[in-house]
Structure formats: structure tokens, C-alpha cells
Design a protein that fits this description.
Helix content is 23%, strand content 25%. Strand 16 and strand 17 form a beta hairpin. The chain is α+β, with helices and mostly antiparallel strands and 359 residues long. The strands form six sheets. It has a five-stranded antiparallel beta sheet with strand order 6-7-12-10-11, with no helix packed on it. A four-stranded mixed beta sheet has the order 1-2-5-3, with helices on one face. Bound molecules: flavin-adenine dinucleotide. The site of flavin-adenine dinucleotide has 33 residues, from strand 3, strand 8 and strand 12.
């Protein structure tokens, strides 16, 4: 007979998940538990194991498409938010950040201290515990650039372990957490390491354009200036969560930029009757290139403001599928399938969904 949970552990039943996601979509969790400490996490996992329940870890809900049927197991809402510890040694500064800390609040505090390394990741929704999962990235930076290690509960050994950056296997929108070791680790803390003497490097056109005058006068913008600029640029693209704005009812970019053999370019050029040199792309190593998914969508007719019932495309960002009001997960899936089929038929490219699919 499973033991009852201790009074410290508040297990709720049939909790609707939609309000916990930025899409505002998702049916009920059979069981739901807010976890504020590592001890509570262990207890909650034992609760699930004794009852044979599957576990789903919910962070800020900003990278999820949860089905209308919900989740028939235990949803653990990771809310561990102990104060950030800062350790300085010479020119190195290290931040030990609890998984439940708001990502943007952490970025702001780093930038306010004049430290460079995460300023381009300003305004990304979600919690710190979610940052290593898909190795979040934007405007030329990614979390893996500054993550030193990740502390996590290993569900195989039921021990807390520290994974070095190398052990996390980071690459573009990937880590072991969303590939080879999916569902094995629950992240409770992330340690970031910065060179406190470094100065910001701007690589992205949107940002160099924003600071063109400053750069022309030989000045380097400070991390906090870049933090504010990134948020402003993101807002213009509907990529900042702002209360009441329909374009924010999304999970960010819905499709990953596809990495394909360089030879694919010729096929696209033929299909569109274009000079291959005019097709935007970036080198991705080993004879591969990365193509902007947004460009492919637009060329296939899926432009900003496109609507299919209650689901649609943001009026400010081609890659963000949005909930136009009362969309269900099925509505979003219908739009996703329509786009994927059309892009595949036209360019022979399979677009991969970025948000994690639940149910
Ligand atoms: C408007 C908008 C803009 C966005 N812009 C960007 C962007 O520029 N770049 C980018 O990379 N992403 C972007 N995203 C996606 C999203 O914000 C990030 O992926 C974010 O890191 C997700 O964190 P979260 O806490 O919300 O995780 P959730 O959405 O709650 O979960 C996502 C996945 O991570 C797992 N997970 C979460 N926390 C933990 C944990 N502690 N331990 C183990 N597993 C965990 C979940 O189980 C799930 O599989 C955007 C999203 C939105 C809505």
C-alpha cells in the first residue's frame, strides 16, 4: 500500500495545465505538486513511483504544447527558488542559481553587475532550470556559453549529481536532457561562470544596427544597455511576454531552423526559380548549412498574421504559432501539420517542432 504523502507535500488532483503555459493550452494533470526544495522533490518522486505514475517536470511552461487530454501522471512544478550564491575568484565570477529562479531576473542581475555573457538572452521566458534543457539561445549567445555545471536529481540512482558542461552534451537547441537522457534528470540548480573582465561582443545584425552610432564612435555598449536593447527588439517581434498581447500566446519559435546538406540549396533555388546565392543560410559544419525556418514558411505562403481557425501565426514573427483566443492543442497541431506538409512538399525539408509535446 503506498504511503500517504507527508503534510509538507501538497498533492492536488485534476489541475488544469493551460494557465501554467504561455500558450494557455493544455488539459488536466491527474496529480499536480508544487516542489520548493530538493527534499520535497525526492518525496514527490517517491509518491509517483509507489503509485506507478509517470512524471512530468513543469518549469515556466514557455516551451510546451500540452494536449487537450492533459497528463495522466504527476506534474512536478519546479519552484525551487533559493537565493543565488555568487562566488568570485580572480577574474572569474560564478553564480549558483536555483532551478525555480526566473530566467530574465537572473540575466538582469548579471547585467546590472556589468558582467557580459547572457545579455543577449534577455527576455526569454521560463525558469533557470529550463535553460540547459534545450540550451536556450538568441542573438548570438546560448546558455551553454556560460553554464559551468548542472545539479540534478538522477532518477536512475535517486541521487543528486553534478554534471559538468561537457557531460551535458550541448549543441544547437539540444543537450542530453532533451535527447539521449530525456526524462532521466530533474535539474535543481545551474552554475554559470563568467569572465568578469570580458567586454560584450555583438555578432547579430539587429544589435549592431541598434548600436550603430555608439559603435561608430568606438564605444562598446554595456551589458545592461544590451539587455534593454534585446528586450526592445524582442518586443517588436512579439517575442517578449507582455500581458494582454495576443502575439505572446505562443511557445516562442515553433520550428527549429533546419540543418541540411549544403546541396539542398540548389533544390530550393530551382523550386523558387531563384539564384542560390540569394537564399539566406549559415554554415553548420561538415558540409551542412542552417536555413532560416521563417524564410521557408514565408516562401510556402505562411506569413505573419496567417490564421487557421483559432490557431495562427504571430502578426510580428513568422515562426511563432499563436493561440488566437480559444485555441486547443488540436488547433495548433492542425496548423503545425499543414505547415510541415507544405514545406516538405515544396522544399523536401522536414521542419522539426521546437516546443516539447506532452500527451
Ligand atoms: C515568447 C517566447 C519567446 C521565446 N524565445 C526563446 C528564444 O529566444 N530562445 C530559446 O532558446 N527559447 C525561447 N523560448 C522557449 C522557452 O522560453 C525556453 O525554452 C525556456 O528555457 C523554457 O523554460 P521553461 O522553464 O518555461 O520550461 P518548460 O516550458 O516548463 O519546459 C520545457 C521542457 O524542459 C523540461 N524542464 C523544465 N524545467 C526542468 C527542470 N528543472 N529539470 C528537468 N527538466 C525540466 C520540461 O519537462 C520540458 O520538457 C521562447 C518562448 C516564448 C513563449
Amino acid at each position: 500500500v503506498p504511503s500517504p504523502p507527508s503534510s509538507a507535500l501538497q498533492i492536488q488532483e485534476q489541475v488544469t495545465l493551460a494557465p501554467f503555459t504561455t500558450f494557455r493550452i493544455g488539459g488536466p494533470a491527474r496529480f499536480f505538486c508544487e516542489v520548493g526544495t530538493e527534499e520535497a522533490l525526492l518525496e514527490a518522486v517517491r509518491f509517483a513511483r509507489e503509485r506507478g505514475l509517470r512524471i512530468f517536470v513543469l518549469g515556466g511552461g514557455s516551451n510546451l504544447l500540452i494536449s487537450d487530454a492533459g497528463f495522466d501522471g504527476l506534474v512536478l512544478h519546479l519552484a525551487i527558488d533559493a537565493p543565488t550564491q555568487t562566488v568570485s575568484a580572480g577574474a572569474t565570477v560564478e553564480y549558483q542559481v536555483a532551478a525555480g529562479t526566473d530566467w530574465d531576473a537572473f540575466v538582469l542581475s548579471v547585467c546590472e553587475q556589468g558582467i557580459t555573457g547572457v545579455e543577449c538572452l534577455a527576455g526569454i521566458p521560463g525558469l533557470v532550470g529550463g535553460s540547459p534543457i534545450q540550451n536556450i539561445g538568441a542573438y548570438g549567445q546560448e546558455a551553454a556559453d556560460t553554464i559551468d555545471s548542472v545539479r540534478a536529481l538522477d532518477l536512475e540512482s535517486m541521487e543528486f549529481v553534478t554534471l559538468s558542461r561537457d557531460a551535458c552534451g550541448f549543441s544547437y537547441r539540444h543537450s542530453i536532457f532533451n535527447t539521449t537522457h530525456r526524462d532521466r534528470y530533474i535539474v535543481t540548480q545551474v552554475v554559470f561562470r563568467f569572465d568578469s573582465a570580458a567586454t560584450p561582443k555583438l555578432t547579430y545584425a539587429d544589435l549592431t544596427k541598434h548600436f550603430a552610432v555608439q559603435i561608430a564612435f568606438g564605444e562598446t555598449p554595456t551589458p545592461i544597455q544590451i539587455y534593454r536593447a534585446v528586450r526592445e527588439i524582442r518586443h517588436g517581434k512579439g517575442m517578449l511576454l507582455v500581458d494582454g498581447e495576443q502575439d505572446c500566446r505562443s511557445a516562442g519559435s515553433f520550428f527549429k531552423n533546419p540543418i541540411v546538406p549544403a546541396t539542398t540549396l540548389a533544390g530550393i533555388a530551382t523550386a523558387l526559380n531563384l539564384d542560390p546565392a540569394t537564399i539566406p543560410h549559415w554554415p553548420a559544419g561538415e558540409g551542412q548549412i542552417k536555413l532560416p525556418a521563417a524564410w521557408l514558411l514565408e516562401r510556402a505562403g505562411f506569413v505573419k498574421g496567417f490564421a487557421l481557425g483559432e490557431a495562427g501565426i504571430s502578426s510580428r514573427h513568422t515562426l511563432a504559432l499563436i493561440n488566437r483566443g480559444q485555441a486547443t492543442a488540436n488547433d495548433i497541431a492542425r496548423l503545425r501539420n499543414t505547415i510541415q506538409q507544405e514545406v516538405s512538399a515544396r522544399f523536401n525539408i522536414t521542419l522539426e517542432q521546437e516546443p516539447v509535446q506532452i500527451g
